[in-house]
């Protein structure tokens, strides 16, 4: 899900749906997508037929328009849900939902980071993947609580120190308006030790 073109009147939301036919015969399916706002109301929808030979993959693309979009920012983290459904003769074969924010990002040496045209100064912290005495297991509420505490202290960005953070943490950041630098490791060209 991407948002390549946004203005005050409408946002273009592009959805790419990767399909694979693992069967032994050609199959025709319908790929449909709906975008719902925070209240669950469908604000855009699209469908497309897809025919796949046995063992083939294809990408169905939907270009949808959301009128008067609520833009995601660190102050107002408005989220939408893209629900994708693959069906054959009315029978659902697969279904997925993805939360996303409609926002534009620009980075340049004059203005720095701009979200929706507004310069944003990063006020961040480095965090590790574990939850202290709770350990390294991902507990959704514990991850959300960490972000709530950081937001209350005035932070708007985190860097995941040396490990990718959990999906629960990323979801909490989306909901609460926290920017993320999701790090896989902290050494690129030289080692910390021999």
Topology, element by element:
Elements: E1 2-6, E2 10-20, E3 27-36, E4 42-52, E5 57-67, E6 80-88, E7 91-100, E8 105-108, E9 112-115, E10 118-119, E11 124-127, H1 140-152, E12 157-160, H2 167-176, E13 179-181
Parallel strand pairs: 11-12, 12-13
Antiparallel strand pairs: 1-2, 2-5, 3-4, 3-6, 6-7, 8-9, 9-10
Helix pairs in contact: 1-2
What does this entry show, briefly?
The chain is mainly beta. The protein contains two helices and 13 strands. The strands form four sheets. The protein has a four-stranded antiparallel β-sheet with strand order 4-3-6-7, with no helix packed on it. Strands 1-2-5 form a three-stranded antiparallel β-sheet, with no helix packed on it.
Keywords:
194 residues; mainly beta; four-stranded antiparallel β-sheet; three-stranded antiparallel β-sheet; 13 strands; 12% helix; globular
């Amino acid at each position: 899900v991407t948002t390549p073109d946004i203005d005050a009147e409408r946002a273009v939301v592009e959805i790419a749906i990767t399909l694979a036919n693992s069967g032994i015969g050609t199959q025709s399916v319908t790929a449909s997508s709906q975008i719902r706002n925070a209240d669950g109301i469908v604000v855009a929808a699209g469908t497309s037929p897809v025919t796949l030979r046995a063992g083939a993959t294809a990408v169905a693309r939907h270009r949808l328009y959301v009128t008067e979009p609520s833009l995601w920012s660190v102050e107002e983290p408005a989220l939408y849900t893209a629900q994708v459904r693959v069906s054959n003769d009315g029978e659902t074969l697969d279904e997925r939902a993805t939360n996303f924010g409609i926002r534009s990002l620009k980075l340049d040496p004059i203005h720095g980071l701009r979200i929706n045209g507004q310069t944003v100064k990063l006020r961040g912290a480095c965090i590790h993947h574990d939850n202290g005495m709770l350990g390294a297991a991902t507990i959704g509420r514990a991850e959300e609580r960490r972000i709530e505490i950081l937001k209350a202290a005035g932070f708007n960005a985190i860097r995941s120190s040396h490990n990718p953070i959990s999906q629960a943490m990323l979801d909490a950041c989306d909901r609460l308006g926290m920017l993320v630098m999701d790090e896989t490791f902290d050494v690129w060209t030289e080692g910390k030790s021999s």
